[in-house]
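Structure in, sequence out. Go:
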């Protein structure tokens, strides 16, 4: 559970994630574009849907989502790429938007766009189990299962690769038909469980 203390300022949070508050709070569902928020608002691409709300007031507001683990990411003028379903709450000082991810998104079955969070401030992301932070260097690229991917930041290049072999067609494969490969310098957040993906059904 995330406790956010507010003194008249605001945060953007996943719609319905407020579980309690004290003081005086105002909740406003965001339904339009503008200010780079369109990437988080009611996307309906390949069954993906996410809505956000603005919470403003004085007091403490608590946020949670299905008892998921919460990680705080401190940004200093950087950009964070995160699956929309893994965004819980971001400071109002941060700009949100979308970026096209192509085949990687299509393989997950939950959209071909990834939410971006950029600027200076804190973002709270959620994961199914404690998120693990893995470092990528030029000497050590990283390959991640799409269902375990949560977010990444830094100067990273993504590529989508298929691990399908004839063994998969005979039911002897390792179950990881598609992967995301990260190269460059940066950090990748992964969760110790996997979302249902199209790749998992191959």
């Amino acid at each position: 559970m995330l406790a956010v203390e507010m003194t008249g300022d605001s945060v953007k949070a996943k719609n319905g994630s407020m579980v309690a508050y004290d003081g005086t709070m105002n909740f406003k569902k965001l339904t339009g574009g503008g200010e780079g928020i369109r990437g988080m608002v009611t996307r309906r691409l390949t069954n993906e849907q996410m809505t956000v709300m603005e919470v403003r007031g004085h007091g403490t507001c608590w946020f949670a989502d299905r008892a998921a683990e919460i990680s705080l990411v401190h940004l200093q003028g950087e950009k964070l790429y995160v699956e929309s379903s893994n965004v819980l709450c971001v400071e109002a000082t941060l700009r949100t938007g979308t970026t096209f991810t192509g085949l990687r998104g299509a393989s997950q079955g939950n959209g071909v766009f990834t939410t971006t969070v950029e600027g200076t401030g804190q973002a709270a992301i959620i994961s199914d189990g404690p998120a693990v932070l893995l470092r990528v260097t030029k000497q050590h690229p990283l390959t991640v299962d799409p269902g375990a991917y949560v977010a990444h930041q830094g100067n990273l290049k993504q590529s989508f690769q298929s691990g399908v072999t004839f063994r998969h067609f005979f039911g002897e494969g390792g179950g990881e038909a598609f992967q995301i490969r990260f190269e460059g310098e940066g950090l990748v957040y992964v969760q110790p469980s996997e979302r249902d993906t199209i790749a998992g059904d191959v």
